[in-house]
């Protein structure tokens, strides 16, 4: 035991004599808060600890059963919440959609594919059979402003609420800057930047109308902050830099409405498309892991928790921030 907190037997006897009591309460560590000291030293007539005072925020309210009642970490609970996710038909978007379902949310995946991947239907069935919620699919191109706003409004009207959005739709292409055409560059910006903006705008309009606030998460990239060694994609990196700045500005503008906006910057993720890339450039399979501090590449499943955190009350005081998850790649 730390000698700073040890009370000798002679000192204990002396204090008992001075206080006129045969019992002595062990002092709390110096770092304990006033609330902690009060709770630890208070009890009712039955000797049961007094419940913690209510903290601000509904997720933290105490109950007769104790501080958090019968649930653990209720601030991560998304039960009954309605969340949209663009690019949710496959890959990282679908993985995050599954995490939202497991947290209790009703999820609407938006994607330009005519039909989602087979894994989507498996997740859809599990949502109904095992999770008591539902996963829906809406085919839409995030560049289609009119249809996008109509679709999001219809979802909000149907459910009477819209609580969150993950803007994950995006593309990546490798072209040298000397060979990039205006058409290819504009396509990248239209999907990755304008599409992300329009999706966020459509969701925010409904959140403002409903007056309940919400949380918006935009998928950026570590490539929005760094130049990737050996990977020639200037337009993609520029688009992700734009997403980072877009997220900060939307957070500033929509904060008064109770809408939080944050971004996630993933590192290299091993997806089906990346596996195809490794077939074409096998040297990258060995080189890329060496560029971060963990010496490996990430998996889509490793971003599940980040999605829940940013869309839930667990991050209720977080906005205008970028959550970097790149294995320390750009911290060297």
Whole-number tally of structural domains? 1
- Mind telling me the CATH superfamily name? NAD(P)-binding Rossmann-like Domain
Write the element-wise H/E pattern from the N-terminal end onward. Answer: HHEHEHEHEHEHEHHHE
- For the biggest β-sheet, the strand order reads 3-2-1-4-5-6-7
CATH architecture, by name, is: 3-Layer(aba) Sandwich
CATH class: Alpha Beta
GO molecular function: oxidoreductase activity, acting on NAD(P)H, oxygen as acceptor; oxidoreductase activity, acting on the CH-OH group of donors, NAD or NADP as acceptor
Pfam families: adh_short_C2 (PF13561)
InterPro entries: KR_dom, NAD(P)-bd_dom_sf, Sc_DH/Rdtase_CS, SDR_fam
Keywords: NADP, Oxidoreductase
Brief descriptors of the model:
alpha/beta, NADP, 332 residues, 10 helices, Rossmann fold, seven-stranded parallel beta sheet
List the helices and strands and how they pair.
Elements: H1 9-19, H2 34-41, E1 82-86, H3 91-102, E2 106-111, H4 118-129, E3 135-139, H5 145-159, E4 164-167, H6 182-210, E5 214-219, H7 234-254, E6 259-266, H8 272-280, H9 283-287, H10 304-311, E7 322-325
Parallel strand pairs: 1-2, 1-4, 2-3, 4-5, 5-6, 6-7
Helix pairs in contact: 3-4, 3-10, 5-6, 6-7
């Amino acid at each position: 035991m730390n000698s700073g907190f040890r009370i000798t037997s002679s000192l204990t006897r002396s204090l008992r004599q001075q206080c006129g009591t045969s019992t002595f309460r062990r002092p709390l560590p110096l770092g304990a808060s006033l609330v902690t000291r009060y709770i630890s030293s208070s009890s009712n007539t039955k000797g049961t600890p007094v419940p913690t005072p209510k903290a601000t925020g509904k997720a933290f309210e105490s109950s007769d059963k104790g501080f958090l009642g019968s649930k653990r970490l209720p601030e991560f609970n998304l039960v009954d919440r309605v969340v949209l996710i663009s690019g949710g038909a496959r890959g990282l978007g679908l993985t995050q959609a599954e995490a939202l379902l497991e947290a209790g949310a009703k999820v609407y995946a938006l994607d330009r594919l005519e039909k989602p991947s087979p894994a989507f239907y498996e997740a859809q069935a599990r949502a109904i059979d095992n999770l008591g919620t539902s996963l829906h699919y809406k085919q839409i191109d995030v560049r289609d402003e009119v249809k996008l706003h109509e679709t999001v409004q219809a979802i909000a009207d149907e459910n009477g609420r819209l609580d969150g959005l993950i803007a994950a739709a995006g593309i990546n292409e490798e072209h040298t800057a000397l060979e990039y055409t205006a058409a290819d560059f504009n396509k990248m910006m239209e999907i990755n930047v304008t599409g992300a903006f329009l999706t966020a705008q459509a969701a925010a309009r409904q959140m403002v109308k409903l007056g309940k606030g919400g949380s918006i998460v935009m998928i950026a990239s570590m490539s929005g902050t760094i130049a990737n060694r050996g990977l020639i994609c200037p337009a993609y990196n520029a688009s992700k830099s734009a997403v980072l700045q877009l997220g900060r500005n939307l957070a500033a503008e929509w904060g008064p409405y109770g809408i939080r906006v944050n971004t996630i910057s993933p590192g290299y993720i091993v997806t089906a498309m990346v596996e195809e890339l490794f077939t074409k450039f096998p040297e990258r399979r060995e080189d890329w892991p060496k560029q971060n501090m963990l010496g490996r590449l990430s998996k889509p499943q490793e971003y599940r928790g980040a999605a829940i955190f940013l869309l839930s009350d667990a991050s209720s005081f977080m906005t205008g921030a970028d959550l970097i998850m790149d294995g320390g790649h750009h911290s060297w």
